[in-house]
Design brief:
- Chains A, B, C, D, E, F, G, H, I, J, K, L: Pfam families: Dodecin.
- 12 copies of one chain form a homododecamer.
- By secondary structure, the first copy, chain A, is an alpha+beta fold.
- Chain A has one domain: Dodecin subunit-like.
- Helices cover about 20% and strands about 50% of the residues of chain A.
- The first copy, chain A, has a 3-stranded antiparallel β-sheet with strand order 1-3-2, with helices on one face.
- In chain A, a hairpin with a 5-residue loop joins strand 2 and strand 3.
- Chain A is elongated, with a radius of gyration of 14 Å.
- In chain A, about 45% of the residues are buried.
Chain lengths: ~70, ~70, ~70, ~70, ~70, ~70, ~70, ~70, ~70, ~70, ~70, ~70
């Protein structure tokens, strides 16, 4: 079994907060893969059709290979 | 009417959280302009005279020209 | 007394939010030093043994010298 | 009259090419202001509803103040 | 179904132009996945054996998860 | 009145020094707006027709909104 | 068959050297895919439980699509 | 003969397109040196005296030493 | 005695010039430590209460360990 | 006891290799502090008076506070 | 005659100021080549054997080819 | 004689290690020029036709002018 890690890059979406957007996407990945660490690389967003702020946070996630 | 966008750069201030500082400044702009998207470029802050953390978040906001 | 500032770099840890991790580490420093400003330089984290997100936020803090 | 320059940041849109998106937005500004130079800072885009590529090119434009 | 996006990174090749290299690789992906946006991150290339310029453009593409 | 700040980007010109080019452009703005802070982002220049060095210093200036 | 390339991002682990960590992860990938090139993007590490340095080197690897 | 490469940095000029400016400068170099690869590092330009866009593209070119 | 160096980060303040702000902080450190080199990382500032420019220059200083 | 970490920045010196320069400086710190992780930020060097290559590698080291 | 430019990178040395170090190296080049523009990329320095600050400023200089 | 330095950029090639690739190219230059310092700017590579890793390390080398 490899001791190396693979890095995948995802964007979490939330209308609550930056931290919630991160929580969303990291926990979704951790249901299928062993997460070693994550790093926030970009914080963007928009005003949605209901006039609310939608946070779009890009996260790089390090996952164990063949775990 | 132009299909191009103009980018303005603002700093939102909040003693609650990073997300609140972003919310403050983006919603203030969206009252006067059509906001396409925003991007966080810097997260600074200070300890104010009451000993509380004051978040200062710099945001680039893309706004429709001549909307 | 010097009018210059020294910059120290610390990592705040929190299972609640990015903003809480920043609050933790800046207020801890401000008990011992006069904090002029702070800047977030990195936002990492991991999933801890209880399956919860742990935010690790790196902050540069400007402190008065010989205050 | 000031000899300084102001920098404005705009996004040009084109379904033809990167160069056309730049041309669009720089020539639009040069109708109202004296353009000293421009610099491309970001090249993004999307696939529009007709399945065509839409280039979105961010450009910083240096314009003479009070010209 | 997740509202999050995954980012994949590809290099488009073309002997015509930078824009054509982007078009190649983004339209190829959009046959299999719902493309939300793309961003150009690197523009390299070489002179091929026929003495022609070959553009190699690296593009990050945001695609809907489980669409 | 908003507690937020707007950031404008200007280029100061001087044949004396980098610091003089900064002084020129920041003091010119401070006649019309409340300046919170400034940051130097680029230092370019040229040799003018009299063979003298002309410094062109790009500065981001944080100004109070609606002050 | 596509002439484009896909870029994957992996972290190689070694207690010997930076170069060995790169060798590990690139050769592991080249058993399954045609490797065009690689680029080192980050060099981190830790002191493991036996008090030895463990190098963790992040590498972007360009692989031929559908080869 | 050395197996190493030297990198030279040039700016291509064109009133047609970014790609044409790159083509201009890389092919000019390849008449005198063996070009291994090139990378675009900056895309600037101006509006010339005839009101046309002039693209100024900075390119790093890897050339074989003593070829 | 270690042959390694430690890097400390300080901000020099001056109302005269960028160079004077650097001079201030580097010479202050060199009274207590053996300075190997310094590097300017940031140039900020403000307009002080007397309407004068105050330069705030961040400098990384390499100092000999246990000298 | 704080759960936060402090980051110190050091330069390791070696005439053998980059990895040896890193080993030198990280293991020296780990004799006095609990090292959480390290990251290489710069790789410089010189040709010393004996004509040998001297590697100078800058490393940021995360250490437990009050451990 | 080519309309392209070549970029050379030099380090100017001065014990007076940053601006003087730039002046030194740009004017030295302009005796032999037609200088189009220059850009400061790094500002380092040291304390010399007489205890004075020596500024070492790296400058990229755009020069006309075959002028 | 000028006290300034010129910076040249080269790529060292080695199938052994990163450090060997650096050694190769810096020592080759130091046979013809007085080397002041070097800095690694990029670490790339490929898998060659014999299935071995080939390290390609880009190095900026500061050399004395007119030494």
């Amino acid at each position: 079994m490899s001791k190396n890690f693979e890095i995948i890059e995802l964007v979490g979406i939330s209308t609550q907060s930056i931290s919630d957007a991160i929580q969303q996407v990291v926990l979704e990945v951790s249901k299928q893969k062993k997460v070693g660490w994550f790093e926030v690389t970009e914080q963007r967003g928009r005003v949605n059709s209901e006039g609310k702020i939608e946070f779009q946070v890009t996260v790089k996630i390090g996952t164990k290979i063949n775990e």
